[in-house]
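Hey, weird one. I pasted the Acyl-CoA synthetase sequence into the form twice and got a warning about non-standard characters only the second time. First submission, copied straight from the form history:
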Amino acid sequence: MSTLFPALTNPGEQPALRFGDRSLTYAELGAAADALATRCAGNNRVAVWATNSLETAVAVVAALRAGVAAVPLNPKSGDKELGHILADSAPALVLAAPGDELPSALRELKRVDVDVRAVGTVADVQVSDEDPALVVYTSGTTGPPKGAVLPRRAIATTLDALADAWQWTGDDVLVHGLPLFHVHGLVLGILGPLRRGGSVRHLGRFSTEGVARELNDGATMLFGVPTMYHRIAETLPDDPGLAKSLARARLLVSGSAALPVHDHERIASATGRRVIERYGMTETLMNTSVRADGEPRAGTVGVPLPGVELRLVEEDGTQLPVYDGESVGEIQVRGPNLFTEYLNRPDATAAAFTADGWFRTGDMAVRDPDGYVRIVGRKATDLIKSGGYKIGAGEIENALLEHPGVREAAVTGEPDPDLGERIVAWIVPADPQSPPELAELADHVAGRLAPHKRPRVVHHLSALPRNDMGKILKRALTHD
């Protein structure tokens, strides 16, 4: 197999990584990663204490250079979750930045500090496309997190498919502030630039000021999640300098959750640049994207990436007979971007795939005749069956966000003796002293979508519960 990082074969002095005022060239990254790789070699798996730091990037590259699977650990995880991950993945050691204080769950594990200024070489390691590169733990709706085993093949093919879709080259400079224990920040945001031979500037912590600074200083691409772009949209009216900075970007990309159409439009009107969305999961890496040379259609995640097969299926598993932009089905995908298994969970692995190898994503979508995909929500939490209709929560959320009295919105279903399920809106009002009432919101949605999609219940909140990636935690939305 060709190397994951061709630019490290004969590395030069071009910039590779920058975190704040700390940086590494490709030559320095290669030397540090190879020095660390010699200490990882011969193991099945190593854990990485995945802070937003140079050390995390060097540690993961070192593991990959050694042919060892890296297990990124979320520094915000509690001892119980960390204990489960360590027992399940059985890493031989943990790689961490010098001075990082590790929690008690890791104290029995051999620790190796990452020296980003070390110099060393590593012997060539024989690896195959199917060898594990990462084991990323993903939380399901029930039970402890499952370890998705991502082979080297999946990382290479996803990053090369994105290079095709986004015209991504070694001349690009990426800026982001995403966490490095997740595939968005780590695979796309760190390994992506390194595979292209380009560079990445990590903000440490996201801020609109940091984004503007880096775009003004030559960064060409911005990766973010909807909460970040929402903060950008909120800041733009009072910050013309931010608008000018964003207008300089070649590509603005949002992922990990749907970006509300309202935020799309606010950013586009202020900057003249359209945010493009892509769709992926831990288990599949990237499946679709709006292409850099395609139509930037707000509210969609674009078309399947090269090499990815995608279909929508009915509840009985049959494929939707026609893609009309209205019929809702579950997304199933197949291709070289997929994971190989859930570690130690053959039952869960088997249940995740159909007999002919399609992965059941659990995401519900509609597809336009020209192939564009629009996700309407998760099968488990966002598909509402009301009055004989299958309704996706996402389009109702977008409609609610167009109301001037709504700052944030989430939509769920709850049992209804007549309708089967009724639509419930959870609203963070723009003005808490004067929140929009149910009748006003119902009329607003019915006028934009259809009467059967209007909310029947509304709850007003001060904030929506979200996870580290900005996704709304709908299972936490309960009303006493």
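That's the output from the first submission. The warning seems to come from a hidden character in my clipboard, not from the data itself. The longest helix spans residues 26-40.
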